[in-house]
Structures are given as C-alpha cells and as structure tokens.
C-alpha cells in the first residue's frame, strides 16, 4: 500500500470534491509510521522537539516545531522538513531520519504542521504560488526568520525537503523564495504551480494524474513568475519519484526535471547517469558532481512511499548539510 500520501487515490471525478483528502490516506500513513518506528532506533541525544509559537506572520495558522541537536554548530544551517497530508511536524520528526542526521551534522530542523482539514499544505491557491502572497509559504518563511534571529543560524545555509504534499511545498518554496533557500529535495512531488486551481479546491486531478505536460520554458516561467524581477542565483533541486506512484503519478517526475533545468538554464540531456543503488537511476544536469544544479533519482517499482531508508542521508549530502 502506498505511504506518505498527499491525496487519495483517484476516485471517480464526481466523488472526489466531496470526499476529504485525508480519509483514504489515513491507513497508509499509519502503516508507514508503524513500519518506520520499528526500523528507526531511538536516538541517544537529550535534545527534544519543542513547539514554537508567535514566530511571526502566519496567515494560515501553521504550527511550528523545532529540533536543535545537542551538538548544534555555531551559525548552524537550517533544514525545513515538510510533512505529507494527514501528517504533522512531530510525525515527520519521528518517522524520518532528518533529526538523527541533525544529531550527526549539527544543523537545526524546522518542522511545520498544516492545520487545515486533511493536514495538507496549500500549494494550489493563487496566494500560495507567489512571493509573499499569503497562505502557508509566508508562515514557513516566518519560521526560518525566527530561527535565524533566535538561534544564530547562517542566513546563507537554509534548505527545504518534504514528502508528497511537503514535496509540492518544497517546489513552491524554492520558486517563491530563491533568496531564502539554497537547495531542496522533493520526494514524490509535482512542479511549482502544477497543482494550481482557481475554484478554491486544493485538489488538481490533472496534475496528480500526470496529465499536465508543459515545455521546459513554460514550467520555468511559472517559477520566475512567482518572484518577478528576481535576478539572483537559484536554489539547486533534487527530485525523487517512484515509477509505480499512483497518487502523484510518475510523469510529474520528468516535468519537475524540465522545470528546474530550465530555471537553471541547463540542458535536458543528463551530464551524468548512474545507479547508486539497485533499482535507482540517478541523473544529474548542469554538472556531474554531488551538488549539480539539478539531480533526479527514479526509484524502480516504488509507489508513493518516499523517502525510504537511506534516502534522507543522500538528500542531506546533496544539500551540503553533511559538512
């Protein structure tokens, strides 16, 4: 069964709008968390996850949890780790490896929590898809600013990762705030603005089903349109997708590649292709090293179940948090 789900498997169109997104996903997520709790040994660290309130502008009433490891570095890097639908910041903390990796490398992790019905992040409204337009991206940026002000974080080393709904938000944040985030890693997501709707719905069937196909230029223009006039450097992007994903279908993987290669002005032909692990096909664009402008990993046979064991560590390395 698929896990880390962002939306229900596709029911008939006449039923989807009336059905809460979280209903069909709850069993998947519970199964995932149970499996992860068995596979992830408890950390020896005395550091704990704590909730932060009154962290700044927060138009959609997100919640914020913060993990600061015992061995936090001076002027630490910050990783924003964004959960899937039906999830929460604490669930993503306990169900993924990012906090354990923070213990190892001394960076801080911010875990936002969505509070709307279904606990999905807003990646579809016009407000969410432009810089400082409102909704969830504004609240998440406020969390970053809070950590910079209160924990002495390095303003040049802020990163974001997420799964499913959180992966979609990763794409959105990198587009809206290229001056805030230096790199991101999206597990089972869709391109920036792919999920856009105009009817108030948070669900875009065509995008979820991999039916929105655009040229690299068209995808890139959507990112550039999120922050008009910006001419600075763009964040590097790593995307992951399972070939058997039936929730946010596999064609979205190639559309993300098209978008971010165009944003970086690099070609569609990989500079390097390899298989770092059985069943994985990794391509790099615009460079062959471990921090190429765009890196993509296709996971053969995987469903909506990322990140799996070991993937978080590779994402941390791509972002440069392992130094």
From TrEMBL:
Classification via SUPFAM superfamilies: alpha/beta-Hydrolases
Organism: Streptomyces synnematoformans
Gene3D superfamilies: alpha/beta hydrolase
Domain of life: Bacteria
UniProt xrefs under Pfam families: Esterase_PHB
InterPro entries on file: AB_hydrolase_fold, Esterase_phb, Plant_Biomass_Hydrol_Est
Protein name, entry field: Esterase
Record keywords, A-Z: Hydrolase, Signal
């Amino acid at each position: 069964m698929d896990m880390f789900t962002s939306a229900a498997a596709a029911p008939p169109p006449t039923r989807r709008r009336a059905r809460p997104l979280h209903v069909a996903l709850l069993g998947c997520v519970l199964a995932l968390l149970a499996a992860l709790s068995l596979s992830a040994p408890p950390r020896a660290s005395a550091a704990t996850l704590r909730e932060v309130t009154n962290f700044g502008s927060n138009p959609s009433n997100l919640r914020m949890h913060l993990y600061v490891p015992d061995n936090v570095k001076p002027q630490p890097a910050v990783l924003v780790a964004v959960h899937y639908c039906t999830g929460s910041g604490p669930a993503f903390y306990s169900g993924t490896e990012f906090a354990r990796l923070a213990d190892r490398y001394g960076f801080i992790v911010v875990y936002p929590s969505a509070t709307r019905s279904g606990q999905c992040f807003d990646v579809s409204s016009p407000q969410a898809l432009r810089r400082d337009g409102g909704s969830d991206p504004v609240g998440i940026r406020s969390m970053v600013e809070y950590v910079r002000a209160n924990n002495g974080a390095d303003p040049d080393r802020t990163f974001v990762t997420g799964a499913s709904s959180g992966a979609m938000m990763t794409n959105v944040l990198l587009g809206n705030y290229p001056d805030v985030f230096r790199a991101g890693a999206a597990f089972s997501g869709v391109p920036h603005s792919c999920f856009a709707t105009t009817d108030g719905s948070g669900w875009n069937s065509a995008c979820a089903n991999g039916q929105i196909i655009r040229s690299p230029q068209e995808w890139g223009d959507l990112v550039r349109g999120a922050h008009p006039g910006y001419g600075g450097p763009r964040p590097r992007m790593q995307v992951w997708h399972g070939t058997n994903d039936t929730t946010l279908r596999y064609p979205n993987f190639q559309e993300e590649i098209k978008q971010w290669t165009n944003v970086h002005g690099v070609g569609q032909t990989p500079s390097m292709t390899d298989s770092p692990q059985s069943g994985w096909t990794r391509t790099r664009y615009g460079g062959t090293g471990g921090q190429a402008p765009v890196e993509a990993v296709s996971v053969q046979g995987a469903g909506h179940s990322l990140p799996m064991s070991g993937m978080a560590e590779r994402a941390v390395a791509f972002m440069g948090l392992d130094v």
